[in-house]
Amino acid sequence: MFSSISTLRQVVEEAITEMKHVEKCDMFQGRVGDIKYDLQKSTSKSYEIYPFGSRVAGLGFKHSDYDVFIDMGGYYRGGGETHRSNSVQYIRDLIRQVKTFTDPILIPRARVPVLKVKHRTTGIQCDISTLNGIGVENTNLLRNYMSDSRVRFVATGVKVWARQLGLTQAGVGPGSITSYCMLWLVIFALMQDCPPAAPSVVAVKQSCKGSNLFIDGWDCSFCNSPVPKLKNNKSEIELLIHFFSFYGSMTIPDITSNVISPFLGKMIPVKEFVKTNSLPNEFENYKKQARSDRFYEMRCDSAMCVQDPVEQGHNIAKTVEDWVVDRFLKLCKTTTTLVENSMSPHV
């Protein structure tokens, strides 16, 4: 993949072509409509079906799962906590009565309970949740970041790279970096370029002119807002190299002692982050949630801490193991050297 810049560009552009083809087929060949129709037919016409995830964000491959939130009755903004596991079990029981979906696997004890099924007509694996619409809003935010073709190029390049090297979940299983987490690691790295190639999420929020939307107390009002354009004029290849060099220059202590916050666009020392009341004013939503009865303070005792920019009490890297972090940093460093050595003076 990194034998030359031209090969690197070709691999990434081929992946982007596949992603665009998947997106086109999902929309114009009716895959999305077929799955939504069959889900409503298999459950209830009164339920609202919301697709989200990598396929909707324009980053899905042909074998990518199709994530679906089923709103069983006014739970988009929250309130589904009281029926978190029973509802997906109920959906499973309904789906079992028809032949439209096969191979149901229930994961009731996950942070967000999920029902995995396979859509018989399209062969697409579907992950169904019923808790709230935060996943949908997260996808909207990611899709807006991907509207910059350079950001999409870097995200795609890193996704292919991580998959080939077994860094993401499909590669090494539990303890690895999820694709969702890797996307935010990409966007965060682009925030650190000089000048930044992507704005912080708080900058997106500050430019938002839409109406308020809170889901289970988390501010999602900005997720559909356009991402402001910045003055970084680097090429997509230069930004991809920046990603690898940014993390490749880090050490294990750099990662373990800091919280990576795409929301603020900065790394925050863990010892400061845990002092919730001392956090800057931009974290007012997080501080309010942390003071609530539901105790939303983020876990900071894992090998890597990456704060979800929307559901800010969620460390999206909390299950990543030490050896995966070590391997990720070393591979970034090695990749930086390989790519820089393959560059001509004019690239």
TrEMBL record:
GO BP annotation list: RNA 3'-end processing
Signal peptide range: none
GO molecular function: RNA uridylyltransferase activity
Record-annotated membrane-spanning stretches: none
Name of the protein in its database record: Poly(A) RNA polymerase mitochondrial-like central palm domain-containing protein
InterPro entries hit by this protein: MTPAP-like_central (IPR054708), NT_sf (IPR043519)
Highest taxon, organism lineage: Eukaryota
Organism: Homalodisca liturata
Domain Poly(A) RNA polymerase mitochondrial-like central palm: 40-146
